[in-house]
Amino acid sequence: MSRRELHARDGEALYAAILTELAAEFPAFRIVTKERDALSRAIDVGLRLVTLGGQREYLTRYRTVLGDTLYVPAAWDGTDPTDRVICLRHERVHLRQRRRLTLVGMAALYLLVPLPLGLAYGRARLEWEAYEETLRATLELKGEAAMLDPELRREVIAQFTGPAYGWMWPFRAAVERWFDEAVARRLAEAAR
Ligand SMILES: [Zn+2]
Questions:
Q1: What is the pLDDT of residue 108?
Q2: Mean pLDDT in runs of 10 for the chain (192 residues)?
């Protein structure tokens, strides 16, 4: 069976399986739709302000973990189940970081080190770790071509250098080097 056929048949099963794993590891974990959530709407307004409109897609595009809750856009249920699994694997890294660092430590690292906008090294460190898992999951579930897709590279790099996360690490060359090394690490892992 080709990977694509496997993918179509097993995507929903994989999604159900990771939800079960997450429920066991993080019993309070839940998924909430942003558009219907007052806190998410308030964050959206705040982000538009501090990024001067650079982040306008918080409600409709981005998935965000706060505490034990994953906030998702309404389109979540209609998204390819494999992409939902890849997302949950990324967010599981953040849940584990939070357990490791405690909520206060993580909030401080995420928001305040060293500045809330731009040069947010603490936040970049947390996202680098989570995107390593995004790449690992993409390679496992969608194959090498998907991981090497220039569109994925562009999109991930833009998360660090652009307004989505408040220009958290705007040194494009350094982020590109990290990305290319992370991809090489995944290929080396897969070759073992
Ligand atoms: Zn993340």
A1: 66
A2: 58 94 95 86 80 77 82 88 95 89 68 54 85 96 96 93 74 92 94 86
Q: Ligand 1 centre from 32 Cα, in Å?
A: 17
Give DSSP secondary structure letters for 90-129.
HHHHHHHHHHHH-HHHHHHHHHHSS-SSS--HHHHHHHHH
Q: Contact at 8 Å (CB) between 73 and 35?
A: yes
Distance 184 CA to ligand 1 centre (A): 20
pTM: 0.79
List the strands of the sheet with 30-33, edge to edge. Answer: 30-33, 69-72, 64-66
CA of 123 to the centre of ligand 1 (A): 9
Contact by Cβ (8 Å): 126, 106: yes
∠86-91-94 over CA atoms, to 5°? 145
Ligand 1 centroid vs 9 CA: distance in angstroms? Answer: 27
The CA–CA distances, whole Å, from 95 to 83, 99, 103, 127 equal 18, 6, 10, 12
**Structure confidence at residue 106 (pLDDT):** 66
Beta-strand relationship, 30-33 and 69-72: parallel
In the chain, the amino acid numbered 190 is A
Distance (Å, whole) CA 101 – CA 108: 10
CA of 127 to the centre of ligand 1 (A): 5
